[in-house]
């Protein structure tokens, strides 16, 4: 994974996380949600924003501003728990002047767009791509157990065998 853009202050990020965790303890919502920023402090039993919204008959989707409201009006619908526990948290690590852009600097607005794009890309990669990789790895293990090593031999999947490994096979 590429490195994240440098944080404004890694120790501030640590302190913020610790404070959020202390506010809710190590409890979790009945749905399993345990990210401190997604839980409602003081709720008893502890409840996450998504479950609370459902109970109230409200939408569980938020309009997230990837570049921050001050920098660009573009929004993307995001589940409230992810909005609070991931995307907003990522923005807290930006330089404060970039996120707040109180003087409406055009350069800081562009900087915010870059940071917001990268954060959103990382969020989508973790949501949409990473679980796929885990499924492939698990399935490979299961097929190996059932059909043995090189379970793909004499199947349509042979054409997807990585080229460098077939070269290596010929050499050895
Ligand atoms: Zn919940």
Order of helices and strands: HHEEHHHH
Radius of gyration: 22 Å
* Helix/sheet category: mainly alpha
Ranges with pLDDT <50 over ≥5 residues?
A: none
Largest β sheet strand count, sense and barrel closure: 2 strands, antiparallel
Number of helices: 6
Mean pLDDT: 89
Beta strand %: under 5%
Distance separating the two termini? 32 Å
Strand order of the largest sheet: 1-2
Shape: extended
Identify the quaternary structure here.
Answer: single chain
Number of strands: 2
Percent of residues in helical segments?
A: 40-55%
Bound molecules: zinc ion
What report would you give on this structure?
With 172 residues, the protein is mostly helical. 53% of the residues lie in helices and 5% in strands. The chain has 6 helices and 2 strands; from the N terminus they run ααββαααα. It has helices at 10-24, 49-55, 80-92, 96-100, 106-147, 163-171; strands at 61-64, 76-79. Strands 1-2 form a two-stranded antiparallel sheet. Helix 3 crosses helix 5 (106-147). The longest helix is centred in the last third of the chain and has 42 residues, at 106-147. The chain is extended. The mean pLDDT is 89. The structure holds zinc ion (ZN). Zinc ion is lined by residues 29, 31, 33, 48, 50-51.
